[in-house]
Amino acid sequence: MQSWLWPLIMLFVAIDLFVVFLVIARVRARTTVEVSGKPVSFDLFSVLAVIRTSAKEIDDSVTEFMRGNFSGQKEQLPQALGGAVERARSLIASHDMKIDEEMLRSFVVHIVATHKFAPRADIVTAMNAVPRPEASATS
């Protein structure tokens, strides 16, 4: 390899690193968006931290509910999932968040399957048997 090529490669790497750090700094900076005609400032990482914390709280609550209300019998699963969905819905509402019914149900299915209360296929089948609210309070 030519002797002049190594310094050129190092220069390109240094410039790339500088650009990456510049982009990261820009994203971490406070961002202003317009909501209903008014500028609103927020820190993207703070917003993501709030979402992560809320999701963890919902996960913990649904898991606790399932441990207390589901003994492992397949026949109990629809009733237990219905209660878990209601608990998740109330927690989401308490955080002033909005989520559509399908996303809420998918989130609960994911939590219940992740904690291995039942096989995912059984959870999905049971979730389809859970009645849907007529007027969703979360959408």
How is this structure best described in words?
With 139 residues, this protein is mostly helical. Strands 1-2 form a two-stranded antiparallel sheet. The relative contact order is 0.10. The longest helix has 26 residues. The protein has 2 domains: 37 residues; 81 residues. α2 runs antiparallel to α3 and α3 packs across α5. The protein has 5 helices and 2 strands, in the order αββαααα. The radius of gyration is 23 Å and the shape is elongated. The model has no long low-confidence stretch (mean pLDDT 85).
Question: How do the strands and helices of this protein lay out in sequence?
Answer:
Layout lengths: L4 H24 L2 E5 L2 E5 L1 H26 L7 H18 L6 H14 L5 H10 L10
Antiparallel strand pairs: 1-2
* Low confidence ranges: none
Distance between the termini: 62 Å
Across the major sheet, the strand order is 1-2
Determine the mean pLDDT.
85
Helical content stands at: 55-70%
Q: How many helices in DSSP terms?
A: 5
Shape: elongated
Tally of structural domains: 2
Largest sheet: number of strands, sense, barrel closure: 2 strands, antiparallel
The structure class reads: mainly alpha
Strand content: 5-15%
User: Would you count the extended β strands for me?
Assistant: 2
Secondary-structure element order, N to C: HEEHHHH
What would you report as the Rg, rounded to the nearest angstrom? Answer: 23 Å
